[in-house]
Amino acid sequence: MTFPANGNSLRGLDALDAAKTEVEKHCPGVVSCADLLAYAARDMIVLSGNPKYDVPAGRRDSFNTPGGLASALPKGNDTVAFLQQAFADRGLTLQDMVVLEGSHSIGQTRCQNTIAEVGSMDKMPDTAKFVDKQFLQMEKQKYCPESKEVLFGELRVPLFPDNPNNSDWGNAFYNHIMKGRGSLPFDVSLAVEQTTKGMVQRYASDSAQWQKMFNEAMVKLGKVNVLTGDQGEIRRNCKWINAVSTA
């Protein structure tokens, strides 16, 4: 992946391919890659410690995968106002956005997306002041050292360095960004902006409410711009449209 938001950080697509291969052996042309991806996301979250939720099925796969869709993924230094509009354009609320950000208690990103990148908080001066300076120094020294500047764009850092082994799924993410401890400038800004800081405080103190709202937001997210009925196709191979995979 070469797009700014997820380049050199997205992993696990081989597992999706393996699942698709097995499904096609037993139910050829029935289960789409889009549905499998939604199931995989849910199961990964459940394995991380979140309560299970039902995933609606019936999605179909696109005939193409425009690069513009991937390049439109949120970036670490986008402002709250910018992403609020981006989520709204897809039928998601500000609350959905804040709730879904809690998933950043696990995962990784590239150093160039983080607070360690020079100029990453130029658009958010209040966030720059709020960031925990000791945390910032730790992130620079441990994960994004200047001595490796040539490779800086390829180095990866946990989204939640206080949970580097991805073993602590939950609302601890909100408690930490309230202290200015978060890898992405945008994450920290949620605890600063007046429109979102109240929600951050609420989810930091109520894990059960956050988990409930997170499940509901994931179901909504899984319905964004889906193809159903006779739209699209059921791919035989998730990497290619059927016309290519059989050529």
Automatic annotation (TrEMBL):
Keywords: Calcium, Disulfide bond, Heme, Iron, Metal-binding, Oxidoreductase, Peroxidase. It comes from the Eukaryota. Substrate binds at residue 74. Ca(2+) binds at residue 168. Binds 2 calcium ions per subunit. Its cofactor is Ca(2+); heme b. Gene3D superfamilies: 1.10.520.10, Peroxidase, domain 2 (1.10.420.10). Heme b binds at residue 104. GO terms for biological process: response to oxidative stress. Pfam families: peroxidase (PF00141). It catalyses: 2 a phenolic donor + H2O2 = 2 a phenolic radical donor + 2 H2O. Residues 1-242 form the Plant heme peroxidase family profile domain. GO terms for molecular function: heme binding; lactoperoxidase activity; metal ion binding. It is an enzyme of class 1 (oxidoreductase). Its EC number is 1.11.1.7. Belongs to the peroxidase family. PANTHER family: PEROXIDASE 16-RELATED, PTHR31517. This is peroxidase. It comes from Chenopodium quinoa. The lineage of its organism: Eukaryota, Viridiplantae, Streptophyta, Embryophyta, Tracheophyta.
